[in-house]
Write a structure and sequence with these properties.
There is one protein chain. The chain is 40% helix and 18% strand. The chain contains eight helices and eight strands.
């Protein structure tokens, strides 16, 4: 009796579909977590959130060995937000965000241009600070310290956040451990849920889709601020009524 054999291409196709569905479900869970951190339901905040969003962006020198040249940090303490209306997609909260731009002294004279146009001198949300590479960890810890000492619930945010976690680990800074974070959200992932897409997009694309103005991306401080704006903006966007077709 002849045995029926499964088409190996069909098995591969099913496996690919299963992987896609798993990614899709994981992304949806991340969105639900983000809505929970914001205490957001049906586009409105149910109660005041106690979360601190701690957003990080890292820029590297594009020439090997690719050292870290800039670290950007943006923070939104939801206690400061209180009951303030978010406005359209969270824009009324923007003035409440804290921004930091840490530059590594050893590489302050270098600017990327081969793959992206760097702009380390164009931080738009305050004054840049300069630190020897050996002191970068302490500078980040000093920014974190008030929130850790008051036992705040910290949520990491980023655009492709795992990359930034990996970069900081190269200088011996374990971002997830040091922040004692309760979770993490990725603006790239949230955007994929919003767009119902499996394709990763740049921060600029996400901001364009949200209708947010921006300039001088690839400055770590600016990118951190815009990433946090994007993550919150997409969360609100996903709760908006669908546009009529």
């Amino acid at each position: 009796m002849a045995m029926l054999r499964r088409d190996p291409n069909e098995r591969t196709k099913l496996s690919a579909e299963q992987r896609f569905e798993k990614r899709k479900e994981n992304r949806k869970r991340e969105l639900q977590s983000m809505l929970g951190y914001l205490e957001l339901k049906d586009g409105a905040m149910e109660k005041k959130s106690d979360v601190v969003f701690f957003c990080v962006d890292v820029e590297l020198i594009e020439v090997s060995p690719n050292p870290i040249s800039e670290i950007g940090i943006a923070i939104l303490d939801m206690r400061r937000v209180g009951g303030q209306s978010p406005g359209k997609r969270g824009q009324e909260w923007w003035p409440l965000m804290q921004a930091h731009h840490l530059r590594i002294k050893e590489y302050a004279g270098l600017t990327n241009y081969r793959f992206v146009q760097g702009c380390p001198d164009k931080f738009e949300f305050g004054e840049s600070t300069f630190h020897p590479g050996s002191e970068a960890q302490d500078a980040i810890r000093a920014i974190l310290k008030p929130f850790l000492e008051s036992n705040r619930r910290i949520v990491l945010a980023g655009h492709d956040i795992n990359q930034d976690v990996k970069y900081l680990s190269k200088i011996g800074f374990d971002l997830k451990h040091e922040t004692q974070r309760i979770g993490a959200v990725d603006s790239q992932v949230l955007y994929q849920v919003w767009m119902e897409s499996d394709i990763s997009r740049s921060l600029g694309t996400v901001l364009d889709e949200l209708g947010f103005e921006y300039s001088y991306l690839h400055n770590a401080g600016n990118d951190a601020v815009h990433t946090l704006r994007a993550a919150i903006g997409v969360a609100f966007a996903t709760t908006e009524p669908a546009s009529p077709t």
